[in-house]
Design goal:
This protein is 67% helix and 5% strand. The chain is built from 18 helices and 4 strands. The protein is mainly alpha-helical. Strands 1, 2, 3 and 4 form a 4-stranded antiparallel sheet that branches.
């Protein structure tokens, strides 16, 4: 505890880091405040049914990503997810569109142009999603009497503008956090939204255990132990890498190259889970389709079976298909985001080589083979974490809201963002000759 307090004191001593942390906390507070501001023209006293209908299932997950703004009919009801969708679309389009491939090679200017394309695409997605959200409120339990101005164009058009503006403002907050604060701003906005729903979910689980005589405090303790073990497993998944040894040649006095035997060996770190949470997000998006198809053809036996079995996110068939899709998308996303051939070319140009492997094509094939081998256990582990909420619901009878924190996108996002933020804070501390958050030992004096 003394070491932790000393580390926090060291963080506060670094003026730039202190300023960045305060800016980050301030902008996150603005985002959380906006999530509580209800759209003009909607009676806040008649949203109880909307809240109850978005506590479980896929809508519960979506509501968690927006920090409860979806269930509040807030100005931030769309959250930051349209920006995430636009980013994924642009990333996938970069594979097939030469113009976007060219931007990737132009460095900083190309990155800025792609960011601008992503922003405009975000606005386009918002323009489609905003009316769908407004017209879908009635189906989610909001009575017509809750719309004070009715559901005519005099309400829909201003509400759409507000929802689009809210998403764009959230996107701007995320970019400002990345630029002026600490950590990845967009990821932090998602994480803070997920964390905002955690206390309520835990309180509901606590009340259910203590009042319904279903385990009491002892079972709550067991759940917390299991939860911490799952967090540990998620950290291992995020941090695990396979290190490929690399040696570099050095220029001799005669102008040629010789093997640098005396130099320290370096490594290419290949992540066990190079795709992050993207396979879960892709699979989650596709899992809307089976239940929708079932509702469309509910006059047939197959349609009724699909509607029943794929509407429950904790059901057996839903999670079997969900796990298979995650494994497939893990391989797909890893293949498009880890350019093994480019890595081999860069290594060759810098005079590096993998011992026992010829530079160039053979190195690219070797790296591709290693990535394929380590992606398999990584994809299995990711799929297991993704379906774990359904397992704890069925085996431990955990409340649905609290179960979502036992794995899946929510937990992996929280773990990944927390690790990334801690690493950035660490870099500031170590640059000023302090021990980092993840190091132990006596502090070194500033030079």
């Amino acid at each position: 505890m003394k070491k932790f307090i000393e580390t926090i004191s060291n963080i506060w001593k670094i003026e730039e880091l202190r300023r960045r942390i305060l800016v980050t906390l301030g902008l996150l507070l603005v985002y959380r405040f906006g999530a509580q501001v209800v759209l003009p023209g909607i009676d806040t006293t008649q949203l109880a049914e909307l809240t109850s209908n978005t506590e479980q299932g896929i809508l519960g997950l979506l509501n968690a990503f927006t920090g409860g703004a979806f269930a509040n009919a807030s100005v931030f009801a769309l959250g930051i997810m349209p920006y995430i969708s636009a980013s994924i679309v642009v990333q996938l389009m970069s594979i097939a569109i030469p113009y976007l491939q060219k931007l990737d090679k132009e460095g900083e200017s190309g990155r800025k142009t792609k960011n601008q394309i992503t922003r405009w695409l975000t606005i386009g997605i918002c323009i489609v999603q905003a009316p769908a959200y407004l017209y879908g409120l009635e189906a989610l339990g909001v009575p017509n009497s809750a719309f004070i101005l009715g559901k005519g164009l005099d309400f829909i058009i201003p509400a759409v503008i507000i929802l689009v503006t809210g998403c764009v403002f959230a996107m701007w907050l995320g970019e400002k956090i990345t630029d002026k604060g600490i950590g990845n701003g967009i990821s932090l906005l998602i994480m803070i939204g997920i964390i905002a729903t955690m206390p309520q979910s835990f309180v509901q689980e606590f009340i259910a255990r203590t009042t319904n005589n279903t385990g009491g405090l002892m079972f709550i303790l067991i759940e917390l132990i299991v939860w911490f073990l799952v967090i540990l497993a998620s950290v291992l998944l995020v941090m695990a890498v396979r290190q490929i040894p690399v040696q570099y040649a050095r220029r001799s006095a005669s102008g040629g190259y010789e093997k640098n035997i005396m130099g320290s060996r370096q490594y290419i770190p290949l992540k066990l889970n190079a795709s992050g949470v993207m396979p879960i997000i892709f699979a989650q998006a596709i899992m809307f389709a089976p239940s929708l198809i079932g509702r469309t053809f509910n006059n047939t036996a197959v349609g009724q079976w699909m509607e029943v079995n794929f509407a429950d996110i904790f059901g057996l068939w839903y999670n079997i298909l969900f796990g298979i899709l995650i494994i497939i998308f893990t391989y797909f996303y890893t293949a498009i985001t880890v350019p093994t051939n480019k890595m081999a070319d860069d290594l060759k140009r810098s005079g590096g080589f993998i011992p026992g492997i010829r530079p160039g094509k053979e190195t690219g094939d070797y790296l591709d083979k290693i990535m394929s081998l380590i992606t398999f256990p990584g994809s299995i582990f990711l799929a297991a974490l993704a379906v774990l909420p359904a397992v704890v619901v069925k085996l431990m009878d955990v409340q649905a809201g609290w179960a979502l924190f036992y794995g899946g996108t929510s937990l992996l996002i929280m773990v990944g963002v927390a690790i990334d933020t801690v690493q950035q804070v660490n870099s500031y501390l170590l640059n000023r000759h302090y021990d980092g958050l993840m190091k132990t030992g006596k502090n070194r004096k500033v030079a």
